[in-house]
């Protein structure tokens, strides 16, 4: 199958290429940029005029709810949502049921993803068995089975010696460890950022220290063990400063930020709308400003969706009794374009946070447009307005405060290894 | 990105009248005064031989208490009966939720029985906002206490008590003492006092019982009783729940009493005419000395009496606001179908 993508503005942030040109795809790979390779005849031509052709997006954290929680979503629905959002690769956290601490579960997730065929799933494995924070998981075997990284998510590894051992073992095999920093004691029972809005609403707060204390502990152990490490979804200004300081000292640590934390604040919780019940919580304006500033630095290479679809009933209750998280795959690109519109970063810089940036974090080759690489592509019109509606939403979860909002930047085609997996209908 | 409209406006109908009563926050001084004036008229009535008025005749009021209560539940029941409503009391903590029914399902079931008003107490902050906004917007919802968020009828009965004894709010210094962190009463009192124009509102507690940035609500923070009580006109005590000792918030009841319990000795620092209030039930010897609770400055029993009048006021006003809204909807519907 040969595809010609004609007349699009091809942006490859990795090589800082930004030019209106044609792309030629053959056998799932990018055959040529600019001029057709000898003897190329297109079976299909995609008109990309007035559109941007970007590498397929890479999302560092997206829950697909399978196995175990299929009332909230499954690999078929959620990878379809990814494709509709221009995302070709997503990393899934290990808190499925059963937990991804055995190769069988990891195999199952990848098999289902291949069957669905809409997006590539790179599963994260559990750092400890059952995510219980006590015994090492078989990280080497899990990595052989396809785990891209290891995390204990927000579940505590209370004993610092156990955490040290986990990191030492991961370092032995050069495995990536991802931290979603949270001190269990300080965050217990919390529903939102602890500050004035929280005090007014009478909700249990999650103080900034719930994140910063754990970031500090992890940074010290990363330094001691030399493990490859990444912080997922940081939410506080102080945490990003700590990570930047550590990088200034030479520590090779990276971090990502969820798009909602770059756009919203705890004040949005005013009125108790459960769609703003998120973990990590939306924090103060000061925190949001700090996160946005961090995005301009090298260490913060990725923006993620932190996609967490829920069944309707999970959000039909008083605020604190609802399940946290928002669905986000389909809005990741459009919401990130707001950062460009607000002139925080350029279009190419923003795309780097969704493509080659996360690829570098993971140490994978995708996330760029170059001859010979798999043709994972996202074609979108940055000016086209659209809105996510319950009827058009591909994800099984409709839990997002952005439902029904007019957004800019509509994906017209998504290609995974040269195959069109989404086309705007 | 999201237009922030005051979420407390859902309490008002399109003419600015009360149609739910969820929180004292965000309501105007005029509206709060109207509640107090209306309550005053019911106070007078309660002293008469025939205590009933027909304002809610033919209406069904359902008391839904998802959290145990004796005093609040019974004064709401009495208030509804004195307004001639039919009253159904449901103690949900022991019925349907134990069978796994969701809050939404419980409320929709009650609505299907053509209820006109829900009086709700719930342990989750914002539960009544959720009900009024998402579940049964056309049924008047009266908040009888939600989590740590609000207990507006308690605050308004306190305001009525203060007004009866002090008249004008503007010169008053008021101290709220004790477990501010967990208190929905304190939050509702603070909003009401600020809106009604009290000169100064203070909170007095150790840092473990103060929520973060409470000063943003417009209060002065004190951790010392003598300083905090100095020259105040009103002392509002809060109930301290025993389980606070277990969650590392306080070392012991004895130490709390020594530092923050209201004794006659500490009360000397307040204004000589200071009044003492407590939402009940009181823990004698934990937050208040018996001599103070039973003493001449204590208005604890007046508060209970006023509680019925205030509840009658907000119930009748909210029902009227809902009726006006329903009439308007019917009118609009009629003009659309013409």
Question: What's the gist of this structure?
Answer:
Chain A has 13 helices and 18 strands. In chain A, strands 1, 2, 3, 4, 5, 16, 17 and 18 form an eight-stranded mixed beta sheet that branches. A four-stranded parallel beta sheet of chain A has the order 6-7-8-9, with helices on both faces.
Secondary-structure blueprint of this entry?
The complex is a heterodimer of chains A (about 425) and B (about 350).
Chain A: E1 2-12, E2 17-26, E3 29-33, E4 44-47, E5 52-55, E6 57-59, H1 75-84, E7 87-92, H2 103-116, E8 120-126, H3 139-145, E9 149-151, H4 160-172, E10 176-179, H5 184-187, E11 192-193, H6 196-201, E12 205-206, H7 209-225, E13 228-231, H8 237-248, E14 253-258, H9 259-263, H10 285-294, E15 300-304, H11 332-341, H12 347-354, H13 356-362, E16 377-387, E17 406-416, E18 419-423
Parallel strand pairs in A: 1-4, 1-5, 6-7, 7-8, 8-9, 10-13, 11-12, 13-14, 14-15
Antiparallel strand pairs in A: 1-2, 2-3, 5-16, 16-17, 17-18
Chain B: H1 29-46, E1 60-65, H2 71-82, E2 86-91, H3 103-112, E3 117-122, H4 127-135, E4 140-146, H5 152-166, E5 173-177, H6 184-195, E6 200-204, E7 220-222, H7 225-229, E8 234-237, H8 253-260, H9 264-267, E9 275-277, H10 290-293, H11 300-337
Parallel strand pairs in B: 1-2, 1-3, 3-4, 5-6, 5-8, 6-7, 8-9
Helix pairs in contact in B: 1-5, 1-11, 2-11, 5-6, 5-11
Structure, described:
The complex is a heterodimer of chains A (425) and B (338). Chain A has 425 residues and is an alpha/beta fold. Chain A has a single domain (55-362), classed as TIM Barrel, CATH 3.20.20. Chain A has helices spanning 75-84, 103-116, 139-145, 160-172, 184-187, 196-201, 209-225, 237-248, 259-263, 285-294, 332-341, 347-354, 356-362, and strands at 2-12, 17-26, 29-33, 44-47, 52-55, 57-59, 87-92, 120-126, 149-151, 176-179, 192-193, 205-206, 228-231, 253-258, 300-304, 377-387, 406-416, 419-423. In chain A, the strands form four sheets. In chain A, strands 1, 2, 3, 4, 5, 16, 17 and 18 form an eight-stranded mixed sheet that branches. A four-stranded parallel sheet of chain A has the order 6-7-8-9, sandwiched between helices. In chain A, strands 10-13-14-15 form a four-stranded parallel sheet, with helices on both faces. In chain A, strand 17 (406-416) and strand 18 form a beta hairpin. In chain A, helix 1 (75-84) crosses helix 2 and helix 8 (237-248) runs parallel beside helix 10 (285-294). The radius of gyration of chain A is 21 Å and the shape is globular. By secondary structure, chain B is of the alpha/beta class. Chain B has two domains: 7-150 and 305-325, Aspartate/ornithine carbamoyltransferase (Rossmann fold, 3-Layer(aba) Sandwich); 152-302, Rossmann fold. Chain B contains eleven helices and nine strands. Chain B has helices spanning 29-46, 71-82, 103-112, 127-135, 152-166, 184-195, 225-229, 253-260, 264-267, 290-293, 300-337; strands at residues 60-65, 86-91, 117-122, 140-146, 173-177, 200-204, 220-222, 234-237, 275-277. In chain B, the strands form two sheets. Chain B has a five-stranded parallel sheet. In chain B, strands 2-1-3-4 form a four-stranded parallel sheet, with helices on both faces. In chain B, helix 5 (152-166) crosses helix 6. Chain B starts with 28 loop residues before the first helix and ends with a helix. The mean pLDDT of chain B is 92.
């Amino acid at each position: 199958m040969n595809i010609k993508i004609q007349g699009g503005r091809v942006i490859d942030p990795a090589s800082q290429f930004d030019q209106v040109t044609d792309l030629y795809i053959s056998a799932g790979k990018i055959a040529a940029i600019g001029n057709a390779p000898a003897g190329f005849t297109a079976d299909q031509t995609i008109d990309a005029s007035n559109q941007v052709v970007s590498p397929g997006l890479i999302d560092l954290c997206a829950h697909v709810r399978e196995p175990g929680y299929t009332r909230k979503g499954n690999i078929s629905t959620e990878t379809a949502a990814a494709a509709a959002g221009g995302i070709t690769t997503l990393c899934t956290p290990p808190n499925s049921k059963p937990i991804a601490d055995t190769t069988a579960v990891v195999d199952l997730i990848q098999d289902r993803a291949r069957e669905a065929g809409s997006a590539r799933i790179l599963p994260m494995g559990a750092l400890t068995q059952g995510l219980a924070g006590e015994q090492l998981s078989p990280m080497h075997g899990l990595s052989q089975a396809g785990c891209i990284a290891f995390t204990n998510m927000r579940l505590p590894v209370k004993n610092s010696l156990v955490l040290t051992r986990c990191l030492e073992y991961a370092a032995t095999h050069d495995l990536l460890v991802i931290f979603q920093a949270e001190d269990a004691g300080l965050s217990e029972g919390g529903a939102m950022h602890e500050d004035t809005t929280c005090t007014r609403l009478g909700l249990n707060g999650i103080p900034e220290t719930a994140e910063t204390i754990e970031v500090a502990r992890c940074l010290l152990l990363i330094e001691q063990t030399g493990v490859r490490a990444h912080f997922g979804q940081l939410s506080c200004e102080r945490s990003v400063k700590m990570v930047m300081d550590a990088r200034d000292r030479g520590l090779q640590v990276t971090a990502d930020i969820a798009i909602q934390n770059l756009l919203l604040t705890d004040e949005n919780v005013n009125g108790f709308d459960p769609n703003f019940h998120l973990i990590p919580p939306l924090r103060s304006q000061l925190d949001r400003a700090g996160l946005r500033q961090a995005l301009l630095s090298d260490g913060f290479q990725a923006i993620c969706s932190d996609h967490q679809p829920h069944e309707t009933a999970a959000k039909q209750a008083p605020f604190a009794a609802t399940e946290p998280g928002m669905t986000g795959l389909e809005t990741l690109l459009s919401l990130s374009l707001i950062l460009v519109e607000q002139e925080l970063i350029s279009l190419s810089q923003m795309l780097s946070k969704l493509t080659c940036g996360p690829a570098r974090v993971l140490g994978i080759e995708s996330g760029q447009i170059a001859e010979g690489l798999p043709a994972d592509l996202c074609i979108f019109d940055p000016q086209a307005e659209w809105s996510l509606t319950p009827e058009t939403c591909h994800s099984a979860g409709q839990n997002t405060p952005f439902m029904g909002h007019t957004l800019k930047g509509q994906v017209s085609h998504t290609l995974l290894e040269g195959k069109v997996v989404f086309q705007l209908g | 990105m999201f237009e922030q409209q005051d979420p407390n406006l859902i309490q008002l109908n399109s003419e600015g009248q009360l149609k739910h009563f969820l929180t004292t926050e965000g309501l105007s001084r005029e509206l709060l005064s109207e509640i107090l004036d209306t309550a005053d008229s019911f106070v007078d009535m309660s002293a008469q031989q025939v205590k009933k008025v027909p304002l809610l005749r033919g209406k069904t009021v359902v008391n839904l208490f998802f959290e145990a209560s004796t005093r609040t539940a019974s004064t709401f029941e009495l208030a509804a009966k004195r307004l001639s409503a039919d009253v159904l009391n449901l103690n949900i903590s022991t019925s349907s939720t134990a069978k796994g029914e969701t809050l939404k399902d419980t409320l929709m079931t009650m609505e299907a029985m053509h209820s006109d008003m829900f009086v709700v107490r719930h342990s989750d902050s914002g539960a009544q906002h959720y009900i009024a906004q998402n579940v049964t917007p056309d049924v008047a919802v009266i908040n009888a206490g939600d989590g740590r968020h609000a207990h507006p009828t308690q605050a308004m009965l306190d305001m009525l008590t203060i007004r009866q004894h002090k008249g004008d709010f503007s010169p008053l210094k008021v101290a709220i003492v004790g477990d501010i962190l967990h208190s929905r009463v304190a939050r509702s009192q603070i909003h009401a006092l600020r809106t009604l124009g009290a000169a100064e509102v203070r909170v007095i507690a150790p840092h473990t019982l103060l929520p973060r940035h409470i000063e943003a609500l417009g209060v002065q923070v004190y951790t010392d009783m003598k300083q905090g009580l100095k020259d105040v006109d009103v002392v509002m005590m809060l109930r301290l729940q025993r389980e606070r000792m277990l969650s590392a918030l306080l070392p012991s009841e004895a130490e709390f009493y020594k530092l923050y319990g209201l004794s006659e000795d500490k009360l000397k620092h307040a204004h000589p005419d200071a009044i003492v209030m407590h939402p009940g039930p009181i823990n004698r010897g934990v937050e208040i000395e018996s001599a103070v609770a039973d003493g001449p400055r204590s208005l604890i029993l007046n508060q209970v009496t006023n509680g019925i009048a205030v509840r009658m006021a907000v119930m009748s006003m909210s029902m009227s606001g809902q009726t006006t809204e329903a009439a308007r909807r019917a009118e609009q519907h009629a003009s659309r179908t013409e």
